[in-house]
Every structure is written in structure tokens, then in C-alpha cells.
Amino acid sequence: MEVRIAENAGFCFGVKRAMNMAWDELENKGDNSVYSLGPLIHNKQAVDRYKEKGLMEMDSLEKIPNDSKLIIRSHGVAKKIYTESKSKNMDIVDTTCPFVKKIHDIVKEFSNNGYKIIIVGNAAHPEIIGINGWCDNEAIVINSEEEVDNISLNCHDKYCVVSQTTANLEFFDRIVAKLESKIEDLTVKNTICCATKERQLSATDLAKEVDCMIVIGGKHSSNTQKLVNICKEIVPTFSIETREELDRSKLEGYKVAGVTAGASTPDWIIDEVIEFLKEL
């Protein structure tokens, strides 16, 4: 089988930065415990390596002892987490992606200036939960065009719309177009990160040149699932987390396979998949 790899695939700048910062803390922790509030990134295999190194993952701040070292994960957190961790005298290592941090600043500024905030993305995603926490959790979260039709908007209010960093660009533009038809005073901030745009474009280009696509990444990774949806509109697509999920019998009919990976997928997992495909 011929294997072609997307020009942009695997760890993005923000994820690589977060993982390097967290690893450095674990390397130098000595006998002290290091905690994270939720998984560092949406890739189980990568996170498991950090747990083996000693990272303690907790799902709430209340479960983490006072005076502990706390890693803020790449998805970012709400403003109140910083306030509460400070009151618990925690030593914070902030690995929030700079692109996400920029959205926090935008939301905080516009909210303080009287704007209603609209976030395009999945309300249950930790990045969205964190962003909403910078405007007192009062944002309107939209994840479909139908939702725009169903929300109640005040024509006298000012609105600012931002996006989850991993949103699909075409989808964001469609949402904005619908909002602009309903809102007179709308400020649009396209906060989809450049790494996401690059991955989506290179995946689209590659999918047009191959017989099938393999998309590697966590099942809960938003940016990975966006790649899956983009590719399967063009060509048969297999969504996997590791090489073990590939079924040889289902791939043998294809001559040329394209490979891309989400921003939270480490190189070693990508390499294992490529080697497996080349052996077919």
C-alpha cells in the first residue's frame, strides 16, 4: 500500500508546549505530587505516559490538597479556578494554549464593555466551559445552524461572537452569516487557531488524492473529529486512536491511503500506524 501523509498532522504548538511544560514539572517534582485538573490533552495514550511518570489527574479542585502544584491543562479553565486555587495556596503551572488564552481575554474585555457573548462550539467541551467562565458563564453557546434559529436575541443588545479554536472554518462562517441576519450590532472574532485551519486544509487536499483516509486521534478530541467529518465527505475514512484498531481485511482493497492526525496525537502513534499500512 502507498501511504501519503498530510502536510500538517500531529501535535500542534499549543499541545507540544503544554506537554513539554508538564513533563518538565514531573522530571523535577522530587517527592512532591503534581496534579492536573482533568486530562492534559485529549489523547489517552499520551496522558497515560504522564500518569506513569507521576501525574495525578483530578476532576475537581476540591479533591486536590492545599499547597499543591497544579497544572492548568491546554484547554484552559474558567477565571474562578485561578481564584479558588490561589485561595488554596496552590503553585500553578499554566499550560493553557496561547490561542485559547487570547479568547479568554477577548471574552473578558467585551463582556466588561456590555457585550453579550456568543461562543460557536460544543458546550460540553472543556475549552468552551473555560471560555464561558470568563464572562460569568452567561455566554450563548451555539453548535448548529438550527440553534441560531431557536435562540432569543435582543435587537438592542451588542453581541460579540468567538469560536472554539478547533471549529470548522466553513461551519463558523455559516453561523456568522445567520447571526448577522438577526443582529444589528455584531462583532465577529474568528478565533479558530491557525493550526486547526492548516490541518483541515491539508486533510481536505490529501483526501482528494487518495483511495481512503486514516484519521488518528482521540475519540473525544474535537479537532480530530472535525478532520474525520471533513475527510469522510470526500473519501472512505477510518477514525482510530491506535494501530490496533485498524482492520487489515477492510484496508486491503485500497491502493493509496492518506494519513492525518489530530493536534493531540503524538508522533510515535502516527509512526506505528504508518508502518502498519506500509506492510499491507
UniProtKB/TrEMBL annotation:
Keywords: 4Fe-4S, Iron, Iron-sulfur, Isoprene biosynthesis, Metal-binding, Oxidoreductase
Xref: Gene3D superfamilies: 3.40.50.11270, 4-hydroxy-3-methylbut-2-enyl diphosphate reductase, catalytic domain
UniProt EC number: 1.17.7.4
Pathway(s) annotated for this protein in UniProt: Isoprenoid biosynthesis; dimethylallyl diphosphate biosynthesis; dimethylallyl diphosphate from (2E)-4-hydroxy-3-methylbutenyl diphosphate: step 1/1; Isoprenoid biosynthesis; isopentenyl diphosphate biosynthesis via DXP pathway; isopentenyl diphosphate from 1-deoxy-D-xylulose 5-phosphate: step 6/6
Domain of life (superkingdom): Bacteria
CDD domains found in the cross-reference section: lytB_ispH (cd13944)
Protein name according to UniProt: 4-hydroxy-3-methylbut-2-enyl diphosphate reductase
Binding positions ([4Fe-4S] cluster): C12, C97, C193
Residues reported in the UniProt entry to bind (2E)-4-hydroxy-3-methylbut-2-enyl diphosphate: H42, H75, H125, T165, S221, S222, N223, S264
Coiled coil: none
Organism of provenance: Terrisporobacter othiniensis
Binding of dimethylallyl diphosphate, residues: H42, H75, H125, S221, S222, N223, S264
InterPro entries: LytB/IspH
Residues the record marks as active site: E127
GO molecular function annotation: 4 iron, 4 sulfur cluster binding; 4-hydroxy-3-methylbut-2-enyl diphosphate reductase activity; metal ion binding
Catalytic activity of the protein: dimethylallyl diphosphate + 2 oxidized [2Fe-2S]-[ferredoxin] + H2O = (2E)-4-hydroxy-3-methylbut-2-enyl diphosphate + 2 reduced [2Fe-2S]-[ferredoxin] + 2 H(+); isopentenyl diphosphate + 2 oxidized [2Fe-2S]-[ferredoxin] + H2O = (2E)-4-hydroxy-3-methylbut-2-enyl diphosphate + 2 reduced [2Fe-2S]-[ferredoxin] + 2 H(+)
Family statement drawn from the similarity comment of this UniProt entry: Belongs to the IspH family.
GO biological process entries: dimethylallyl diphosphate biosynthetic process; isopentenyl diphosphate biosynthetic process, methylerythritol 4-phosphate pathway; terpenoid biosynthetic process
PANTHER family associated with the record: 4-HYDROXY-3-METHYLBUT-2-ENYL DIPHOSPHATE REDUCTASE
Cofactor note: Binds 1 [4Fe-4S] cluster per subunit.
Positions contributing to isopentenyl diphosphate binding: H42, H75, H125, S221, S222, N223, S264
